[in-house]
């Protein structure tokens, strides 16, 4: 079990919850943590600001490609961020629970 | 000095603050950043939702095993997440301050 | 393109927004995600608490040294945290957009 976090952002709570539920139903992730933030970024030559929902998705590395493709398919943004961070260590209890949910 | 972030989640502010204070007093971490999020996850065959407190703990890698065991001992969840992310770089000023707090 | 996240914290929204805008104008980062948290930490022999703004900065690894130095120059804290986490994977669309913003 190699566990990963995948970070992505949504324009609002409605789209965040809808996409996360779909990822859970497809067993591509075991859990998501979602909270609002303020974003500042370059867009078409200007610095823009806005509220977003930032989401940490928790899963196993073998789900990565399917998860990335599902996010591209479901995501409301043209250019979403889909950033993978591999965990260096994870406690055995959570790791075993994750395996049971994802692989039955 | 190899610095690490350890991510965990609590059911409420009271338990988060209580456990974090204990970890600080035992000099297992130098700092914690805590904020609320909405969690969606599989639990006993159903997709559940709820508010949680997500916590980033900052420490040095030699504290990892003691920190993990302390979290298991103190944590209100049966299956908490205790996820370690090793920092790739950290500015020298913060690294030196961290060493002074943890190792005197 | 090797993408990185850099995590730092500010004492208030005003300083966070001001410094982030400057980093964007200098093309040291493409995007920042900012949200409030509660911090607990050791400071001069005591455990302190307070509200802060935690910021994830998104950029390319070749910007790291300039970004770190700019943060030291602009940061209101004497000892800020400037923590770099290298992404293990990033979707091609975001990576290409990031390169276009940073390198024209």
UniProtKB/TrEMBL annotation, chains A, B, C:
InterPro entries: CutA_tolerance, Ion_tolerance_CutA, N-reg_PII-like_a/b, N-reg_PII/ATP_PRibTrfase_C
Highest taxon above the source species: Archaea
Pfam families named among the record's database cross-references: CutA1
Protein's GO biological process: response to metal ion
Molecular function terms, GO-annotated: copper ion binding
PANTHER family in UniProt: DIVALENT CATION TOLERANCE CUTA-RELATED, FI09726P
Family: Belongs to the CutA family.
Protein name, UniProt field: Cation tolerance protein CutA
UniProt source species: Thermococcus eurythermalis
């Amino acid at each position: 079990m190699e566990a990963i976090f995948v970070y992505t952002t949504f324009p609002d709570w409605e789209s965040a919850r809808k996409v996360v539920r779909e990822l859970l139903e497809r067993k591509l992730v075991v859990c998501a943590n979602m909270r609002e933030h303020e974003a500042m970024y370059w867009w078409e030559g200007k610095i823009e600001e806005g509220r977003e929902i930032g989401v940490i998705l928790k899963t196993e590395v073998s789900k990565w490609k399917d998860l990335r493709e599902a996010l591209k398919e479901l995501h409301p943004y043209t250019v979403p961020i889909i950033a993978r961070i591999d965990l260096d260590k994870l406690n055995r209890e959570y790791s075993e629970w994750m395996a049971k949910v994802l692989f039955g």
